[in-house]
Amino acid sequence: MPIWLDDFLWTYQNVVYALGVNGLLGLSMYVVLSVGQLSLGQAAFMGLGAYSSALLTLKLHLPFAIVLPASTIAPVLFALAIGTPTLRLSGVYLAIATIGLGEVLRAAYLNIDYVGGALGISGIPERAGVVSIYSLLILALLGFWLIGRSAIGRAMEAIREDEVAAATMGVNVARYRLGALLTSAVLAGLAGALSAHVSSFIGPNEYGFEPAVTILSYALLGGIGSPFAPVIGAWILTLLPEMLRGFADLRLVFNGVIIVLAVLYLPNGILPWTMRRRAA
Amino acid sequence: MTLLRTEALSMHFAGLVAVDAVDLAVEAGSIHALIGPNGAGKTTMFNLISGLMLPTSGRISLDGADITALPAHAHAGMGMARSFQNIRVFASMTVLENVLTGLHSAITAGIAATLLRLPMFRRQEQDAVTRARAALNLVGLAARADDRAAALAYGDQRRLEIARAIAGHPRLLLLDEPAAGMNPAEGAALSDLIRRIRDAGTTVLLVEHDMGFVMRLADRVTVLNFGRRIADGPPANIRRDPSVITAYLGAKVAAKLNAA
């Protein structure tokens, strides 16, 4: 690694990590929105990944190569439990159920001493890094790119546009929606495990309602015309607060203003370009 | 041979009986029209047949197989396709992508084959594109393949819906008011198209308000009124059927016509 790059990473390492992790979270939001569903459970899934991976590392001393894939198990199980009943219905049931999940889990983390209670878990060894974070981000982008340009991508877009017409074309709408939610839980769980293993500390309030809305705003700002859009949205909303450090407490206000402006003036996001939905 | 059959098919919405014990038999290779005044239950019949609604009672069978409780998405695999009265194209997708979506159940490549771009995936995608372009050719939209569906004029969106429905060569095609909003020239072209679809081996069941259109096109007509079947037969008989005339024009006018 050249010295200047080493210096740069050393100085901005937290921002570089956050860009990668938040990119993954943007994609985890993207896949749910791609099938026309609204979930506010991305932060909760991320918290499950973070807590379960931290416990596996600290209490069972498992190697990170096992901890990272294992961090997807708890989010997937919770996504199954919440998605199976709610995704058969159309409407905002998933959004409501996932808000509930976030709050229930926050209360659980706070009150269970085994997971550190209000103090959270500290002293998590730094096992993740630029390579693990960005290779997963690139793999996820590539996967969504390949899936998007196929019958599966067309079916997802069809569901988002008109679920009745999609079903008539032979698309099993409930199955696709559950698949999208499980995929999003996997990505958020991985993002949680990665961020826990670069930041050394996790606490119960990092995965509540507020981060859930922030993750939603990644996709709202970026758009969902292609998998690149939510990642760009995540990067803008990650870098912006760094540049607006002087505003301190007003940073959340900025996030809110950006969401409102994006919804009003950029209904298709900052990157409205729509990918092709076929391979040939 | 009867391709589609409904037996005593009923659909109740709370107190309203939308479809009341309707028997319907659609012969394979025919163009069969379902007509009736507004609110007669035609679209409800379509929604029951295509699985978007579960009937209160009765039975639906396709080529002898019971499909009464089959979920909507499983109908495509059984060889059934439909269009909608209010156009439901996928506006954000291109014309070609819309038709490719109609071939969804013909593509079996799973997630792994898709991610790895296996030869099977490539072959199926290419086959689908070939079939989709053929369907677009048939309806005369080949030149618009790469335009967004939202950019098409109303009549073209209707033709796109038909292309999307016939791309997979369904055994049974349900058309819900395909001629709505069309001028006589467009209507005549649509009649030609529906005949060509029938000649290519697809049985057609259509709901239509335009009587002239139906009488010229259909091999057989079933008439519904207030959810009940009031007549069934070839168009020439239906035209003279007193109960049909009464249903459409009211008893007074029908009596006057008889007297005249």
Describe it for me?
Chain A is mostly helical and 280 residues long. Helices cover 70% and strands 1% of the residues of chain A. In chain A, strands 1-2 form a two-stranded antiparallel ribbon. Chain B is an alpha/beta fold. Chain B has helices at 42-49, 72-77, 95-102, 111-115, 119-139, 154-166, 184-199, 211-217, 235-240, 242-249, 251-259, and strands at residues 2-13, 16-27, 31-35, 57-62, 65-66, 80-82, 172-176, 203-207, 220-225, 228-233. Chain B has a six-stranded mixed beta sheet with strand order 6-7-8-3-9-10, with helices on both faces. In chain B, β9 (220-225) and β10 form a beta hairpin. In chain B, α3 (95-102) packs across α5 (119-139), α3 (95-102) packs parallel to α6 and α10 packs across α11 (251-259). The longest helix of chain B is centred in the middle third of the chain and has 21 residues, at 119-139. The relative contact order of chain B is 0.17. Chain A binds chain B through residues 143, 146-147, 150-152, 154-155, 157-158, 161-162, 164-173, 274, 276-280, and chain B through 50, 52, 71-77, 81-82, 84, 88-94, 96-97, 100-105, 107, 109, 111, 114-115, 117, 121-122, 124-126, 128-129, 164.
